[in-house]
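Late entry, evening session. Most of the bench is empty. Finally got around to the prediction I had been postponing all week. Sequence below, unchanged from the version circulated by S.P.
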Amino acid sequence: MSHLLEIKNLDVKFDTDEGRIIAIDNVSLTLDQGKVLGIVGESGSGKSVTAKSIMQLNPGNTIYNDDAEIIIDNENVLKFTSKNDLKKIRGGKVSMIFQEPMASFAPAIKIGNQMIEQLLLHKETEKNQAKQISIDMLNRVGIADAEKRFNQYAFELSGGMRQRAMIAMALSTMPKLLLADEPTTALDVTIQAQVINLMKDIIKEYNMGVIFITHDLGVIAQVADDVAVMYLGSVVERGPVNEILKNPKHPYTRGLLNALPDINNLDAPLKPIPGNIPSPLDRPTGCVFRTRCPEPTHDCKEGNIEMGLIEVSPGHWVDKCCVNCG
């Protein structure tokens, strides 16, 4: 059985005034229908660039490697050459919830008209039916007085309400694949729980595959079946969510978990990961985490070890350089 999504050997580089930078380095991931893949990591780790690569939404200075493949429904989207090819997947087969809702709506067009337009473009439906589908979805994501909001502009809504409207818009076409980039960041905990439960229900109902990008490991624990941990453009650990959270092997994954508040000891100080993610223009040789690793080996310190994932238990993969570090 083929996967809904398969990313193979993806490299992404950007040409900038300062030089060519590596944003994604040899990333390979798979996702099946009805499953949720969580992608976690600090800002700058490559999560959003990976998601945008799937829909070919990265800027014009993007360079993909020739042997990379992003296969959706047995089609390699990196080989699409026309806007019509991309139109088939953008908003139809694949929808994306962006991190910044204000930038996702046209400011001079009412939210409802934007929702109707996408439904008419991607679904066989009449305008009145598209309107009702849109209003129903606005209701489902917890927007009060949905018909009134349907006729408003994005700037008339609060940040949290814009976020919910964007989620409703992405879900309304019932895509096969949903890319959710920090979809609950702007929401209070009550609405966050409501939206997460809604997404779980829709995933189950429509057998939808989801890539869920977040900094919040608590959310990942609630929604994801599998998780990929990214650092400086590389996947350093991936596997079933329970295995990764309970038995992390990579020092970076352990650092992310240790940085969470201890619910049993709220007075305990937080344990941040020392240092910062290096600039992509000054990318470490060898293991990309070596400059922040608590216990790097001699070869690791010297940058003499190449990265690459090995399987340490069924379905649990970790960078071979870091299995015994930290």
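Two things to note before I forget:
Residues 248-326 form one domain.
The longest strand covers residues 19-31.
Will write this up properly tomorrow.
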